Amino acid sequence: MFISKAWAQAAGGGGGAGAGIQQFLPFLLIIVVFYFLLIRPQQAKAKRHKELIKNLRRGDRVVTQGGILGTVSKVINDGEVQVELAEGVRVRILRNAVTEVLAKTEPVAAKEGDESAANDDAANDAPPPETKPAPPQGIAGLLSRFLGGK
């Protein structure tokens, strides 16, 4: 007689499908919060870095992962660039080691003759253009994107 009452209490009293959704809702909320606060900003940062690496060109002022400042003196291939750290001091680094571009240079205008010679030999004496500030990170960046700021 007492056993049947114990089994009836353990069954949950007829909550049905609604009880399952209520138990799953906190996990779903956690997943959504992780996506908007961690995963999505990290994907955007990776996309910006990939674009930055793709657009490296001769004359750009860069910062490496080790914190070394230099100027790109030559783009060797898709994976490497030559960076001039001081006058006459040049090192080859991987493109992925560049973390930030401090100053972008304008593309060198090609002469009527040889395009590759114009790109290698032309000197750019104009001051580098001003860079726009980085977008806000974290909660401030998230709020500004959702509220319409850029």
Plain-language structure description:
42% of the residues lie in helices and 20% in strands. It has 4 helices and 5 strands. The protein has helices spanning 2-10, 17-54, 115-121, 138-146; strands at 61-64, 69-75, 80-86, 89-94, 98-103. Mean pLDDT is 78; it is low at 113-125.
SS element count, helices: 4
Q: Which stretches of 5+ consecutive residues score pLDDT under 50?
A: 113-125
Mean pLDDT: 78
Strand order of the largest sheet: 4-3-2-1-5
What percent of residues adopt helix (DSSP H or I)?
Answer: 40-55%
How does the overall form come out from the CA principal axes?
Answer: elongated
Let me know the largest β-sheet.
Answer: 5 strands, antiparallel
Roughly what fraction of the amino acids lie in strands? Answer: 15-25%
Judged by helices, strands and strand pairing, the structural class is: alpha+beta
Q: What order do the SSEs take from the amino end to the carboxyl end, as H and E?
A: HHEEEEEHH
